[in-house]
Amino acid sequence: QVVQVNGGGQSLTADKIVNMMPVTKRNPRDYIFGKVIGEGSYSTVYLAKDIHTNREHAIKVCEKQQIIREKKREQVRREKDALNILSNSGSSLFVKLYCTFQDAERLYFVMSYAKNGDLLPYINKVGSFDAACTRFYSGEILRALEHLHDLNIMHRDLKPENILLDHNMHIKVADFGCSKILEQPDAVDKSILDENNPRQRSNSFVGTAQYVSPELLTEKTISPSSDLWALGCIIYQMIAGLPPFRSRSEYMLFKKILNLDYVYPDGFNADAKDLVQKLLVLDPNERLGTKDDQRYTSIRSHPFYNGLDFDTLHVTNPPPIYPYL
Ligand SMILES: C[C@@H](Nc1nc2c(c3cc(-c4cn[nH]c4)ccc13)C(=O)N=C/C2=C\CC1CC1)C(C)(C)C
Question: Which distant-in-sequence residues (6+ apart) come within 8 Å of 251 by Cβ?
């Protein structure tokens, strides 16, 4: 039957109204949950299969109670906003947010599944990437940073564990936008740096702190340049096999960062060494690229990247990562 809903204008029949309805919200029963992929501080990321499309997804599940207790509502909001902006920005260099839904106890974020996991095991397995691999993968990370910074989003926690690899071995940057470095127990605990702070020194080993920039430790300022410092650490690690700043004690680790106390192993690629030296600069305003806008042209034109075509990286077959036999 014809339903006159807009005062004699174009008639709407029932079937047209139904077609205008949004896709019904998903719910947990639309997915078969599989293995735990990883744990955040207030969330768990599962591998899951959508029973309607048979597609694999990563679903980040957050406990509402825990978010409230740990006062992370603002952070979850920021991360979702960043994910939304990025998912609609058309770049394939980031994990995509497909949909979100909730039930009484939890929030669910359905994201793209990076079939080949994160970059760290590849660096550890081969001990060190050859120049072609380092060029390609650090080049993809640079493109991702250009895209992020263009959208005024800073990653703030760039590290190999957050650089994921899709089925074609192209990168997908994960876990961005949430400025979680400061809040999380396993993150930087800066309070130990002010000597006069009565707080006990926390001697918990910090995984995240290896890539933290000096300005975050001193002025507590965050800028896109902090991501360039992390890029410098990652390029060093791709070639040396380990990050430049390492220590069992958090305090010594921060001291090494603030004193730029690191060394290049023998045989370190000379061009890469020159590039890393221009990124691991204490003053964020003096790092290579900080004066660039739109694209990091001064990094793209560094000799280490001679011959690399940045704009076709995402459609180029990645070089194989050779395991040392
Ligand atoms: C960095 C993150 N690790 C991971 N986050 C995500 C993965 C992911 C996949 C594997 C993997 C795939 N096969 N084997 C391992 C290993 C680690 C992963 C994925 O596929 N899709 C989206 C992800 C994250 C979305 C982002 C909002 C958090 C932590 C450690 C925080 C769980």
Answer: 192, 193, 201
